[in-house]
Structures are given as C-alpha cells and as structure tokens.
Design goal:
By secondary structure, the chain is of the alpha+beta class. The protein folds into 4 domains: 2-59, OB fold (Dihydrolipoamide Acetyltransferase, E2P) (Beta Barrel), CATH 2.40.50.330; 71-132, Nucleic acid-binding proteins (OB fold (Dihydrolipoamide Acetyltransferase, E2P), Beta Barrel); 142-209, Nucleic acid-binding proteins (OB fold (Dihydrolipoamide Acetyltransferase, E2P)); 214-280, Winged helix-like DNA-binding domain superfamily/Winged helix DNA-binding domain (Arc Repressor Mutant, subunit A, Orthogonal Bundle), CATH 1.10.10.10. 16% of the residues lie in helices and 37% in strands. The protein contains 4 helices and 18 strands. The chain has helices at 134-140, 214-231, 244-251, 255-267; strands at residues 8-17, 20-23, 27-30, 43-50, 56-59, 71-79, 83-87, 93-97, 114-121, 127-131, 153-161, 165-170, 175-179, 192-200, 206-209, 235-236, 271-274, 277-280. The strands form 4 sheets. It has a 5-stranded mixed barrel. The chain has a 5-stranded antiparallel β-sheet with strand order 8-7-6-9-10, with no helix packed on it. A 5-stranded mixed barrel has the order 11-12-13-15-14. 28% of the residues are buried. One of its GO terms (molecular function) is nucleic acid binding.
C-alpha cells in the first residue's frame, strides 16, 4: 500500500489487537489514532502514512490536504538544516524541505505562518509537503478583483517572495503583487500582511503597497534618518542630491521619500546639508 500513502482509503477491520486494530493490508490503526471502537469486518475511512520505522499506518483523523489535494497548512516548527514542519490536521507533522523554501532563511515562514501545499512522496515513500505553483493558485483560488478597490485596505498571505517583490493572495482570493519599493522589509513566505491597493490591473490582479501613506511615512522616514545620524556621530554621507540607488540601498526608501523626510527635518531645524552630506544640528 505504499502507493496509497498520503491518501484517504476505505479499509476493512481484520481484527483488534492490544495496541489497536489491524486493517486489510496488515495496516495498523493505533488506538491513539481513532476515537471510535471498531469491530471486525467493519469498514473505516482512514488516512495512510508512514511511521518512524517506515511502516504504513493509518489514522481516522482525515486531513483536507492529501496527494494532489491542496490546502493551507500551519507551520509548527522550523529546523534550519531541514526546512519547516507543517500541521495538516493529523498527529503526523509533514516536512516542507528547505529545497522548496527561499534561499535566505530570514524570509522562511515561522511558527503560525501558513503555506498552501499538497503532499508528495520521496523515493522511500515518506510524505513531503509540496508548495503550490502559480498555476495551482490560478486554477484553485484566484478571483478577479473589482475596479473599485483602489486605495482599499487588504489583508493577504504571502505565497512567493524574491528580490523583485512579493506576491500575496488576499482573503477574498485576489492576487496582489508587492514591488520591493513598496515594502520596508521583505515579508516572510506564509506571513499574513496588511496593505493598501495602489492599482487594480486590467487582468483583475492588484498592486499592493505595505508602506503607509506619504503623510504618515514621512514622519517614520525622518525618525529613521535621525537615528542613523545619531549612530554616525551626527553626519551621514547623503543629501537630497545623492544617487537614488545609494539611498535605496542604505535606507530602503525612494529618493523622493528621502527628500521629503529631509525637508521635514530641515524645516524643524534638526539637520542641515553641506557639501553633499547631512549634519545633525
């Protein structure tokens, strides 16, 4: 029955033993894996998996996630040398291998985050979690966003992340792209984020920003610049004439946002600019 591991099967009870029940195929259903008393010749729905010894065993806890059946699974443990373990709704937690996770561990999911997965089997028949592809999301979850969502607040779960940007699926099923300029830090895979719709595209997908509105972000950016000045003995080698990429690489904000923050601080007479540098007054 190795080829049925990771699926739900209807099996007949052959006999009861001290530790549980023996099902057809000599599969053990342990007492801890069922809350129902069973009798010989009774049929029972079970989910099949392998125990630590590599034996095929059964549980009456039936997960929504199976081989080729996708669903959201919560991360319960992170092991850097292996990956993350997820809860699919049974007593057995399933490994999502580090090979399926982002290159940098700082954007790996942490406990409580959720990933959209199905199950697969390795060469030894052990169950593994497999993340859904873009095609799967499009087939199973995506909805077309209405035109009136511009500037609306949305909540979404990150399902892909890289240097160019992050992609989320909102609670309503809309696909949202978050460009790297619209986030102060890169969200984790599986993280639940709140953002603002800045564009509704013709194909029904969204562009989303995780940054606050300009009037709100200006104060945050100004505080960040002041903190950098205090850490740098009152001077930083940046001004409103600095290269946009240098500003982005150091402060992770646009040159326009940097200039707005500098203007606010100069108006408050907290800084001054000389010779391409900014000084704390």
């Amino acid at each position: 029955m190795n080829n049925q591991i990771g699926t739900i099967q209807i099996l007949e009870v052959l006999r009861e033993i001290e530790t549980g029940y023996v099902l057809e195929g000599d599969i053990l259903l342990h007492h801890n894996e069922t809350d129902t008393e069973l009798e010989a010749e009774q049929s029972v729905d079970v989910f099949l998996y392998q125990d630590k010894k590599g034996q095929t065993v059964a549980t009456t806890q039936l997960p929504a996630i199976q081989i080729n059946v996708y669903g959201w699974a919560e991360v319960v443990e992170v092991l850097p040398h292996l990956g993350v373990f997820v809860n699919i709704g049974t007593t057995k937690e399933i490994l999502l291998s580090k090979d399926e996770l982002p290159l940098f561990e700082n954007v790996w999911p942490t406990a409580g985050d959720k990933v959209y997965i199905s199950l697969g089997r390795d060469r030894k028949g052990r169950l593994l979690a497999l993340p859904a592809t873009e095609i799967v999301f499009e087939r199973e979850l995506f909805e077309e966003a209405p035109d009136d969502l511009l500037n609306a607040n949305v909540t979404g779960r990150i399902y892909r992340t890289d240097r160019e940007g992050s992609v989320c699926i909102t609670e309503e099923g809309y696909r949202g792209f978050i460009h790297h300029t619209e986030r102060k830090e890169e969200p984790r895979l599986g993280e639940l984020v709140e953002g603002r719709v800045i564009e509704v595209k013709e194909d029904g997908t969204l562009n989303v920003s995780l940054r606050p509105l300009k009037q709100h972000s200006m104060g945050e950016d100004a505080d960040m610049i002041l903190a950098r000045l205090e850490e740098s003995n009152g001077v930083i080698p940046f001004s409103d004439k600095s290269d946009p990429e240098d500003i982005r690489g150091t402060f992770n904000i646009s040159k326009a946002a940097f200039k707005r923050a500098l203007g606010k601080l100069m108006k408050e007479r907290k800084i001054e600019q000389r010779d391409g540098k900014t000084y704390l007054v």
